[in-house]
Amino acid sequence: MSLAARTYVALLHHPVYNREGRVVTTAVTNLDVHDIARSSRTYGLGGYFVVTPVQLQRELVSEIVAHWQGSRAQADQPRRQALELVEVAPSLEATIEQISANHGADPLVAATAARQAADTTSWRRLRETCGADQRPMVLVFGTGWGLADQVFDRAQIRLEPIWGPTDYNHLSVRSAVAIALDRLFGREK
Amino acid sequence: MSLAARTYVALLHHPVYNREGRVVTTAVTNLDVHDIARSSRTYGLGGYFVVTPVQLQRELVSEIVAHWQGSRAQADQPRRQALELVEVAPSLEATIEQISANHGADPLVAATAARQAADTTSWRRLRETCGADQRPMVLVFGTGWGLADQVFDRAQIRLEPIWGPTDYNHLSVRSAVAIALDRLFGREK
Asked: What pTM was estimated for this model as a whole?
C-alpha cells in the first residue's frame, strides 16, 4: 500500500487559536469539506477527517456528505468520489484511534503550522523518508489562526511552514492542504 | 525584478465550460477572491485579476476589496495585504493590456487545464526557463468546468494538468492556483 493510500488529513476545529491567540473551537466551513476532499482524492489519500467536538457540526458534515451521495450523485460523480473520503471525529485522539483500527498500527502524527518553530522537518525530507515503513500517517492542520501548541508540540513530526519567496504565509487552510499534498505526493506526467 | 513579482494570476469567469460542456459565464465566488489573493501574496506575485464581463460582478469584487481596506483593515492586516493585489478586468484581453501597461512589455500567456492536451509544458520546465527574460507572465485559470478551448488553444504556453498519484484531478480552482504557485515559486527554508 502506497504512503498516500495510508495517509489521512485531519482538519482540527479545536484546539486552535483565534486572532487574539486564545484557544477556541471554530465553526466548520462548507468549502473546507469540499475543497479538501477533492484535494485528498486527487492525491490518493486514505481519508479526510473533519474534527470537531461539537456534535451538531459533525452531523452537519455528515449531512453534506450524504446529500452528495444521494440525488445529485449522478450529476456530479467527481464530487461524490471526493466526499466518500470524508469522515468526522470528535478529537484528534479519536481520529488516531480510527486510523489505528483501519491499519492495525498507530499513525505517525505530522502537524503543520504557519509559524516557524524549532526542530521542524522539511516537506522534502518527509517525502523521502516516510514511505519506508508501512505505518499510516495523519497530517494535522488547524483552522482559525492555527493548531494550539498542545497539539503541535506533541506531534511526532512538526512540519516546516509553507513558504513562497516572501515572508508572508497567510494561506487559507484549503490552500495549505493542497500545497502540502502536492509537495508530498505530486508528480509531473 | 523576480519572475514572481512579474507574474499575475487571471481567474476567468468567461469563456469557461459548464458541466455540460457549453461556454458560459460563471458567478464570482467570494472565497476565490480571498483564497487566491492570499496565495498570490504568499508567492510574491505582481497581482491577481478577477476577470468577468459582468460589470455588477466586477463592482462586487471591488466592494469586497474596499471593505477589507477600510474599517476592518486594522484587525486583519494580512488579509488587507492580500486583497491589495486584487484587480478586476472585463476580459483576458483587457488583463493583458493592463499588465503590458504596468511593465512596458506584453506578458507571456500561460493557460491551465485539468484535462490532458497535446504540446503541453511541464511546471518544472516553466520554472526553469521563464525567469530568463524580463517579460511579465499571466497564469490563466478557468472557473466552472475549465477554460474554453478558444482561450486554452491560443495561449503561448499550455501547462500540464496537476496530477497526484491517481487519475482523478478535480481540484477546486482555489487549490489548483495554490499548487501551481508553489510549483513555480515555492521554497523550503
From this structure: 0.96
List of chain A residues whose C-beta atoms are within 8 Å of the C-beta of residue B41: 166, 168, 170
Q: How many CB atoms lie within 10 A of CB A146?
A: 23
Give the A:B interface size as CB pairs under 8 Å: 150
Superfamily of domain B4-185: SPOUT methyltransferase, trefoil knot domain (3.40.1280.10)
Beta bridge partners of B50: B11, B88
Single out the residue of A179, A126, A189 nearest to residue A156, CA to CA.
A126
Q: Using a CB-CB distance cutoff of 8 angstroms, which residues of chain B are in contact with residue A41?
A: 166, 168, 170
DSSP code at position A74: T
What ranges do the domains of chain B cover?
Answer: 4-185
B83-92 burial: b if 16+ Cβ within 10 Å, else e: bebbbbbeeb
pLDDT tens-digit series, residues A94-122: 999 999 999 999 999 999 999 889 899 99
Residue A128 has what DSSP assignment? H
* pLDDT-based confidence at residue B74 (cuts at 50, 70, 90): low
